[in-house]
Amino acid sequence: MIKLFIADDELLVLMGMRVVADWEAAGIEIVGEAQDGRSALSLIMETAPDIVITDLNMPVMDGIELIRRLKQTGYQGQIIVLSNYNELQMVKEAIKAGAADYVLKVTLNGDELVQLVRSLAGVSERAAGGGEQQRKAGLALEWLHGDIDAAELGARIERLRLRIGERNRLLAASVLRGERAAPDDETLRNMLLEVVNRKTAAEVLTLGPGRCLLVFPAGAGTGDEPESALRELGEDIRLLIGRYLNLDMQLLYQPQPVARERMGEEVRRLAVGLDAEFYELRPGVRRIDEIAATLELEETFWRLKQRLRDRLELGEDVAPLLDELFEHIADKRYGLKAVRQIGRNLYILAEEAVRSAGGELDATGGPEAADGLDSAPDFAAYSSRLMQLFERVQAALAQLRSGRKRDEIRKAIAFIKQNYRSKIALEDLASHVSLNKNYFSTLFKQETDLSPVEYIIQYKMEKARELLRSGQMSVSEVSHDLGYDDLSYFSRLFKKHYGVSPGSVARKS
């Protein structure tokens, strides 16, 4: 399925976008929505959509700034902007910032929008690349992204005369990362075809830069032979690439024949297995079940992210928590897509922390802070860059905070953040910082632009939204957790703050 995210400040537009087309039938899933640019940015980092459709005029952060921020984080998906007739200048700015295309709201057509989304996601024949040979070679990439169903696959195999049976054995090959550049995809495919076709019938498909997928129909040579034949073929491939290109490879194979309808699942598993070189360079030929790999971010990461946010807010050292995060990533052996999603989430978290203190992350982390995470050659470099980023962020936060708020206000805010689940009275806050209640209220308003009560409500609502999005608690449980015994009062506060009911924000498990 293609993952789609929609951002528009008009609720009616969001509702209309849901029904303008039969998204599910088109192989498209709406994974998230937002009504302002800042919320969209955070949610896009969490959901990692393939396509983003965004309005240009939105509160807090407009669509053009959202596009710029996404590009800064290394977001690799495509962006479509929604516009009105009088916004053509903004459309030009959006395209310049990195948008791929635009559609006019007043002439919006569901079928045309579906076609545009699928085209930009690389699903259409046009996007798959011109020519029969390119479409054949690119089939594995469609499996990899889940963009081809069984009926379409059968038709493609017949039309392109692919040597793919009802059941197949699979071998994935990757040139190891290193100083030497991998050969271009066509050269690599031709060399692999040469060595493979000496022994058996097979298809060699592109699986990404420096990577190929070899498909052996069960019943054609290697397909019926024991596992040793696949391992021997893998060693022959290593020998060939090493002899002619002076490069080493890692190869993973699935020893059991795979039914055609399960090919996409197994291709994704093999691709993530190849990502193990991110953690350690280990050339050779191995079974896929020897590789422990994780495709989707687990709940442990989201909890660690929340703890990281809390420590940044309280000004506490985050280095031990980052070490814990690195252990989690290495233990789970997340695939590169998940690793990049983690990096973008943490970059946005750092950016928001610095901005909330009155600064800008660009002045703190430099351009390498975002781009460097995606381009890190291995896990050691990735974790080192993340640690350096947060060291700079914490230093900047300390400097920004020391010049902004009096000690009494910083102490009061820390008290709120540590006790927000309880009912905090104004008298309790004033007493905690040893100030007169009225003077404390005046001082707090001067420093934060909010009264103490307004600040407490705002912070509780932010926590409520985070808990609801996690999908771990119901609306009533969140209300009780935040100290609101009256569910209807909590719901009114939430809707007043965000413009939508808490039930509409809650993630469905």
Kindly describe this structure.
By secondary structure, the protein is α/β, with parallel strands linked by helices. The chain folds into four domains: 2-120, 3-Layer(aba) Sandwich (Rossmann fold); 132-290, Alpha-Beta Plaits, CATH 3.30.70; 299-402; 407-505, Homeodomain-like (Arc Repressor Mutant, subunit A). It has 24 helices and ten strands. The protein has a five-stranded parallel sheet, with helices on both faces. Helix 13 (319-332) runs antiparallel to helix 17 and helix 16 packs antiparallel against helix 17. It is globular, with a radius of gyration of 26 Å. The two termini are 18 Å apart. Mean pLDDT is 83; it is low at 123-132.
What is the topological layout?
Layout: E1 2-7, H1 11-19, E2 28-34, H2 37-47, E3 51-55, H3 63-72, E4 78-83, H4 88-97, E5 101-104, H5 110-120, H6 132-137, H7 139-144, H8 150-160, E6 167-175, H9 185-196, E7 203-208, E8 211-217, H10 227-245, E9 249-259, H11 263-274, E10 284-287, H12 299-314, H13 319-332, H14 336-356, H15 362-365, H16 368-374, H17 379-402, H18 407-419, H19 426-432, H20 437-448, H21 452-470, H22 475-481, H23 487-498, H24 502-505
